[in-house]
């Protein structure tokens, strides 16, 4: 079965570059090629939602120059990818604590989101300045303000309306969730690969999907009930 929603923690750009004796930022640039390849593959494979963890709330603590490069790269990628979104019928979303992003970047994001809002193919979600705990906290505040219990708690999460991920992939050999979709990953299947993100392309993505297809999801029931 093809997962409806795949989430990816795109990790290992810095190490990929360092192994080649280059600056970490070089890995981030190369990583954008993997983003392109993986979104193309998601369209081909019929995945409906692709969530990409691009920058965490904790990543703000990195050296200023690296943060600036990452933000610059983000703006550049959004601009470059807009024709591809149009061509491939991709709906583009950004989720995260956007109050920490620059005005210019927020404007670029809004434009790309508005332009693609009516697209009906793949929903590509970039998580920027996101953390799972931030999401749960902001949802709790709004839930309480709305006079709970009104609606479901998950309706207040930043991912409201988006189904929970079926498969979470993390590259670079680390086996942790690093504050990504904490609430949403309650029953998600995890796939860890040693490949660094710049080396994760269509072949590696296909392998992850094959692995996912071999699993039995039980959601608390017994194997016989499935
Ligand atoms: C992932 O690669 C990109 C971001 C977290 C922004 P890293 O920059 O974390 O690369 P490593 O893990 O240090 O190799
Ligand atoms: C997770 O990678 C965040 C993103 C990929 C955006 P990190 O490199 O920040 O995670 P840790 O620090 O190794 O847990
Ligand atoms: Mg990392």
Quick summary:
This protein has 226 residues and is an alpha/beta fold.
Corresponding CATH superfamily: Decaprenyl diphosphate synthase-like
Q: CATH first level: which class? A: Alpha Beta
The DSSP helix count reads: 6
Low-confidence parts, pLDDT < 50 over ≥5 residues?
Answer: none
Number of domains: 1
Mean pLDDT: 97
What proportion strand?
A: 15-25%
Ions, cofactors and other ligands present here are: 3-methylbut-3-enyl trihydrogen diphosphate, magnesium ion
CATH architecture label: 3-Layer(aba) Sandwich
Termini Cα gap: 14 Å
3D structure, described in words:
This protein is α/β, with parallel strands linked by helices and 226 residues long. The chain has one domain (5-132, 159-213): Undecaprenyl pyrophosphate synthetase, CATH 3.40.1180. The mean pLDDT is 97. The protein is globular and about 50 Å long. It has a 6-stranded parallel beta sheet, sandwiched between helices. The chain has helices spanning 13-19, 24-45, 64-87, 103-116, 132-145, 202-213; strands spanning 5-9, 49-56, 91-95, 123-130, 167-170, 189-192. Helix 3 runs parallel beside helix 4. One 3-methylbut-3-enyl trihydrogen diphosphate is lined by residues 9-11, 53-56, 58-59, 174, 176, 178.
Question: Mind sketching the topology for me?
Answer:
Layout: E1 5-9, H1 13-19, H2 24-45, E2 49-56, H3 64-87, E3 91-95, H4 103-116, E4 123-130, H5 132-145, E5 167-170, E6 189-192, H6 202-213
Parallel strand pairs: 1-2, 1-5, 2-4, 3-4, 5-6
Helix pairs in contact: 1-2, 2-3, 3-4
The protein binds 3-methylbut-3-enyl trihydrogen diphosphate (2 copies) and magnesium ion.
One 3-methylbut-3-enyl trihydrogen diphosphate is lined by residues 10-15, 55, 59, 70, 172, 197.
